[in-house]
Structures are given as structure tokens and as C-alpha cells.
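Self-study notes.
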Amino acid sequence: MKRRAKDPPTVEGLPADWRRRAKSLRRYGAETPATAIERCADDLEATLVERDETTFSLVEASRESGYSADHLGRLVRDDKIPNAGRPGAPRIALKDLPRKAHAPAGPRLAEKQRSGEVSNTQIVQSIIEKGLE
């Protein structure tokens, strides 16, 4: 019987996958690489939580979701999407943002200004958006 390759983990599943790999490395005495992998898992997990909690104005949310700001505003007013802002100045958390099929899956890093150096957070966010190659 032919063995099927395991499906690669989702971005959200990577921290757990990396921790399993670190545990395996540690069993063979590779403490330093195991610790490095666990730190990467911690960083990715923190970035995923931060990403999901990122909030957008209705105009920003419109660009991210593909829906109009008016439609998103109605969804917030009708309590179909939680208001992450305040009355009169609604905001929508990324985790609650509906998306049209053609809309991007996360914040567009390419449109953000870069300072010249790439931070660990930018690397992790790039992995989140583009996946591993």
C-alpha cells in the first residue's frame, strides 16, 4: 500500500506542528534547535492572535473584505458583526470580517510602508499571508 504524504499544516496549525518537531529534536539531544523552534512557534502564535484582533474602520474593512462600507455598517448595526469600536465610530476585528470569494485573506503587507529592515513580525506575517514555499 502506497503511503500518502501528510497534508501540510495550516498557518494556524504551524505552532503545534513546530512544538511536536521541537519535542522530537529534544528527544535526540538537540536542545538549541528545539528551543529555537519553540520560540518561533510562540512568535507565530502571538502574531496570529494580534492579527485576528486587528481592527479596521468601515472604509478599511471594505478594502479588506470586498464588501461596501455601507453594507458592513449595516451588519454592525444589525449585530451580525460585533462592533470592535464604539457607537458612532464602528470598527471590525479581522477575525469577524466577512470576505467575498475574491477578497484577500489578510491585511495587505505590500501596501504598508517598510522601514528598510525586515522585522520578525513582518516575516511571520508574510508566512501567514503567503504560506510556506
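Second protein, same conventions, sequence then structure:
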Amino acid sequence: MLTVLAFILALGLLIAVHEYGHYRMAVACGVKVLRFSIGFGHTLLRWQPKGSPTEFVVGAFPLGGYVRMLDEREAPVDPAERHLAFNTQPLRARALIVAAGPMANLVLAVLLYAAVNWGGAEMAAPILGRPVPGSVAQQAGLVGGERVAQAGFEGESLEPVLAYEDLRWLLTRGALEGRDVRLVLQDERGRSGAEHVLPLSRLDAKDADARLFEQIGIVAPFSRPEIGEITPDGAAARSDLRTGDLVLSVDAQPMRDSRELRERIRAAVLEGQAVTMLWRVERAGQVQAIKVRPDVVEQGGATIGRIGAFVGAAPEMVTVEYGLFEGVWQGVVKTWDVSVLTLRTLGRMVVGEASLKNLSGPLTIADYAGRSASLGLSSYLVFLALISVSLGVLNLLPLPVLDGGHLMYYLWEGVTGRPVSEAWLDRLQRAGVFVLALMMFIALFNDVTRLLG
């Protein structure tokens, strides 16, 4: 239920803001707006403010909306109102009205990011977990447990890293854009110390997925190898492990973080039989040696070990908060970065340098909406900002059925002094519908594949 509600709220808000951008600019340019609709199909709500020419409607099918303006191309117009018709407006006014929808989504994204920045968000500290063996991070000399103080692209200025999510975003951009990332670590006294360069340009990344971060080697923030809640009758309970035990080593091999411990547990199976491990744990200030024999289970066609306990302490958290103006500026920067990355990824998909798996449809959006809402208001607002940026950028693409397509027509009109002919409009609209339908099919196919996978 939470997923459905979060999805409907997200769609309703983002579509309403987009269409409101068109509506407000149309009114400001002196165009008569006949209908403002959120959703299509059967009308659920309908009202018309006193003295307003605009009818406001909420439809049953929420995937879209529209603003219907007075226009001679759609219906006869009273000569007395011809100056209020959209098609009679100067080119600049028509372009502003069309561009206002996507721009409203981008402005909303800035405000959402700013709201998160002002309110302060609890985020994981930028402390690195143990790098994946053989990964870029391990080859660069990282071992896990390092706190990142500053980071940036090679050859550019470095910026402070306040939270792990900042670092993850930089690594995502670096991998997809083929740019190396420089990390400056914090020493024991809290000062900037050693530097490491991650040569992400060597990865030739096509997808921003879990496999990409496995290749980079920085998968999750640092989590102490601590035993959490224990399941009765599981291997942990039989071995007399207790909640709060800190695992120092397994078979004399030091455990740097919880991820390394989980891998050792999973691998403690030989020819279908559990392998007994010798653990050294710290409990109430005392070090104890405990033998642990995991349970053997089947998962995804593989035989692995399980101990029946939650493994790993919660990562260290920090509160990231900005002042009034700095919060807005950071919102602008994040919106710009996401927009640029979206455009670059789309461009790389067109030329075959990025996978079409990066396209997501309504099922994935709904899933992410539910997950982010369950994590709290800040996470949900960040999700809304990301989708708002995507909606704004996608609508500016030069596809004939989108706002960017209309702007493309106006650019032609501005350069040549004449509008696009009706014959070409028809051809371009058909081509645009085909391309958009193909993109939606691929996105929906990716959704189903992710959910079934």
C-alpha cells in the first residue's frame, strides 16, 4: 500500500508541477487556457473557479496530463478572442510557454534538494568498506576503514566529502563519463592525508548497476563485523554467539568489516558440508575463541553457509545540513549534475556506448518510490527530485511529441522565418510517436526483467 500511495503522490506532484509551468506561462503571455488536466480517462474531479475561463480536471489514469489552450488549429475561434489564441502569439511567447513545463520540473528539483539540505539529513559517513578483491579500489591501495575527506575528478579542484552518498554519486559519474577520481583520506588527527587515484576511465562502464560498483570495489560504507539479532536454533545460537559480539578474526584472518565476515560465512562450505571456523570475538572487553559451524543452505543454485544472525553494525551516521543560500546553491549544483549525467547517458545509449538497461519505466519508479518513502521523508524528497530532473530533461529532448520537439519546430521557424509545413509535421509526429513508444516498451521490459530477476 505504501508503494502505491508513494507512487501516486510522486506522479501527481511531478505532473501537476510540469503542467502548472505551462499554465502559468500561458496566462502570463495572455493566452486563454481552456482546461488544466492531471491524468487522462474518466474524470474524477472537475471544478472551475469563479471568473476563470479554465476548467481544472483530475483524471483516473495518472500517467500524464495536459493544458488545453485556445488554438485555431484545434477548433474555430471567435474573432473577438483571436488575440488570446496560442497560435497567434509571437514565436518567443510560444517557446516560453512550451519550455515552462520542463523548467518547472527542474526548479522543483532544486527546491526539493534545497529542502533536504535545509532540514538536515542523517547519512552514512564517508568511511570505506573493504574493497572487492581485484577491484579498482583495491588495486589503488585502499584496504577498508579509510575516511574520505575530499574527492574530485582528476585534473579538477577537490570538494569536501560530507557523506558516503556524495562519494557514491561522484564514482557513478566518473565511471559513466570515463573520468578518473582522486580521493584524499583523513588521517588519525582529522587532517587530510594520503591520496589515491581511482582510474575509472579504464572500466568502459555501460550500466550504473551493482556490477559496476563491484568493479569499482567501493560497494557500501564501512560496517563493523558485529553480530546483531540472532535467530533461535540457528548456527549462531548453537555456537553461543551473542548480540553485540565484535568479530576480530576468523581462522586467524582479521575481519576488517561486516562484508568480509559475511563472505567468509557464505564460503564455509566444502563439498556440500559445513566447515567449522574458529572465531575470535570481543565481548564486554574480553576476547574469546568460539567455534562456529554454519548451516548449509541452497541459494540461487549455489550451496552457501548461514549462521542465523544479522551480521554487521549500522554504519556511522553524520548529519548533513546547509544554510539558506548554500542549501539552494547545492540544490542547483545537484540538479545540474543529474541533468548533465542524464543527457550524457542518453547520448551514449543512442550511439551504443551505454546499455539500454539504464531506461526505467513505471514499475521501477513505483518500486523506488515505496522504498524511499519507507526510509523517511528526506529519502523520498531526494527520490522526487531525481524523477523531477528526469522528467524535465526527457521532455526537452528534440522528439516531436515532446516539448523539446515543439521547441525544435520553433527553432526552425526562427531561423527560416516560416513554420514547419503540415506535411512535415505529420511525418515528424508519427516518427516521434514510434520512438517514444519504443522507449516505453524498452523501459517496461527492463522493469519486468528487474522484478523477475
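Instructor comment on the second fold: The mean pLDDT is 86.
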